[in-house]
Specification:
mainly alpha, 6 helices
């Protein structure tokens, strides 16, 4: 009966492939398993600083820092970001545009109402603003009467 060799000197960390064996031709390695999320994120640890958070947010959203501050929820969004272990750019964009972290309810009604999605088409969240003086005077679009 052949002896079993339990000694394994291969590096099995994620992203490392075993070296080709004698029967395997040298070439592309086996696909690596996805690496676990890095701490704190791929956005970098610099986002702990509020100003760095605003600069990164401006680069991702297309709105400048002054516009992001003017939403009135920049500090709230920064606190939301810091409360999450995984911080990636998709989640940060979702936070700014929708007012919530992905798969969570908005951190506040204000965060939702001030989301950038409404600004992209010059609209407002339903029920968040008054319709304007005299808007009641005419029939609704497409509605002639009763």
């Amino acid at each position: 009966m052949p002896a079993i060799d339990d000694h394994d000197d291969h590096d099995h960390r994620p992203g490392r492939a075993d070296p080709p064996g004698p029967a395997e031709p040298a070439g592309p390695a086996h696909p690596a398993e996805p690496a676990p999320p890095e701490e704190p994120s791929d956005l970098g640890p610099g986002l702990l600083d509020f100003d760095a958070f605003l600069r990164a947010s401006a680069g991702l959203t297309g709105f400048d820092e002054a516009e992001l501050r003017a939403t009135g929820v920049a500090h709230e969004h920064h606190r939301t970001l810091l409360a999450h272990r995984v911080r990636d750019e998709h989640a940060l964009l979702h936070l700014w545009y929708v007012g919530s972290w992905p798969d969570e309810p908005p951190s506040s009604a204000r965060a939702h109402d001030r989301g950038l999605m409404w600004r992209t088409f010059h609209g407002a969240a339903p029920g968040s603003t008054a319709p304007g003086h005299g808007s009641w005077a005419g029939a609704p679009y497409g509605g002639g009467g009763r």
